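Dear colleagues,

As part of the handover before I leave the project, I'm documenting each prediction I ran so the next person doesn't have to rerun anything. This entry is a single chain, and its sequence is reproduced below.
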Amino acid sequence: MKNSASSLRCGVDEAGRGPLAGAVFAAAVILDPARPIAGLNDSKQLSEKKRDRLAIEIREKSLAYSIAFASVEEIDQLNILRASLLAMKRAVESLSHTPQEMLVDGLHLPEVGIAGRAIVEGDRLIAEISAASILAKTARDREMCEWSERYPQYGFAQHKGYGTRAHMSALNQFGPCEIHRRSFAPVRAAEQQMRLFAGT
């Protein structure tokens, strides 16, 4: 990282801890006080259309932003919390400016050698975290729509990998695909069921 300045702080958030499929994404954002962005909020509280519009504005107006992810394989190997922190670490370390403070949504901080605070509901309270929440969410949603084209039977474009009734039905019918998280109990159960039916 470069271009350190004492007044810079970054917001950090992840998207995709709960789903049964897909990578977990994280974003880090340093906002520009001279270019405020109206309407920032927890990405889950915004419509898809508003999230997409704000994501463009964040990319255009922020001093720096970065989006990173941890793969399904890393989730299964590390567990979802550690994989989420890894994605956050990658996002912060990829920023073009070095922040002096890191504000992270939730209870845990990635280990990046920067002073930080974990803030419960920070994605609703802190503009920088809200911006990171929006970038992480829109990036992950976009990737899940791309996976939906490859595996249309699962409906990833609609539920983004969360364990909806439609997703569980498809999972039990077709078994897991390459982006399902096999360390998650419903995916393991579906895989075991498919093996029983196959006689393996």
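The helical segments are 48-61, 72-78, 80-93, 122-125, 127-150, 156-159, 165-174, 185-198. The mean pLDDT is 94.

All the best with the project,
I.
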